[in-house]
Design a protein that fits this description.
Elements (H helix, E strand, L loop, with lengths): L4 H9 L17 E2 L5 E5 L4 H6 L6 H12 L8 E4 L13 H18 L3 E5 L1 H8 L5 H4 L4 E3 L2 E6 L2 H6 L4 H17 L1
Parallel strand pairs: 2-3, 2-4, 4-6
Antiparallel strand pairs: 1-3, 5-6
Helix pairs in contact: 1-4
Bound molecules: uracil (URA).
């Protein structure tokens, strides 16, 4: 549907297809290397992201950056975006119709980046990309494949802030990404 970055970014930044456009300060489109081998998909912007228009700049993003450093991955090497591009009020989960309205932008981003690996951060990304409901703990750390892209679900970094014991699993999953990237 979208032929290039300009078209999709322009459409997304002017989007009013769902109610989330009403309270947004900024559309949070995505950031990083547009030719990345690894793409990270979160849930939706929080308050800091809404203000700055950049994904994962708040506390969860800072934790993610630290984990990236630990495996020698730079934020600039990867492409980072979310299922929905506008902040859901009070950081609630995006509703199904909101995600459905927004998914064409993500699909275009995936086509344009054409990554080898997609990392799904948390259950909202898992549900919307792989159609798996309520399964992040069971699905994390396992490789899936869709349209020739290797997909690894893991915990959302915000979950690690709430529960320290999940950090070790997130770390293990990031190491799997590093190893897979070297294999490809
Ligand atoms: N949580 C997300 O899922 N995405 C962001 O961009 C920030 C926090």
């Amino acid at each position: 549907m979208y032929e290039n970055w300009e078209e999709v970014e322009d459409a997304c930044k002017n989007c009013n297809k769902c109610r989330l456009c009403n309270e947004r300060k900024n559309v949070v489109f995505g950031i990083g290397n547009k030719n990345a081998k690894v793409m990270f998909i979160g849930e939706g912007p929080g308050a800091d992201e809404d203000i700055q228009g950049i994904p994962f700049v708040g506390k969860a993003g800072q934790l993610m950056n630290k984990a990236f450093e630990g495996i020698g991955l730079k934020r600039d090497d990867v492409y980072i975006t979310n299922i929905v591009k506008c902040r859901p009020p009070k950081n609630r989960n995006p509703e199904r119709d909101e995600a459905e309205a927004c998914i064409e932008y993500l699909e275009a981003q995936i086509k344009l980046v054409n990554p080898d690996i997609i990392v799904l951060l948390g259950s909202v990304a898992l549900k919307n990309i792989l159609g798996i409901e309520y399964g992040i703990t069971a699905s994390r750390g396992k490789w899936f494949e869709k349209d020739g892209i290797k997909i690894l679900p893991t915990f959302h970094p915000a979950a690690l802030l709430r529960d320290d014991t999940k950090k070790i699993y997130f770390w293990q999953d990031l190491k799997k990404i590093r190893n897979k990237k070297e294999e490809i």
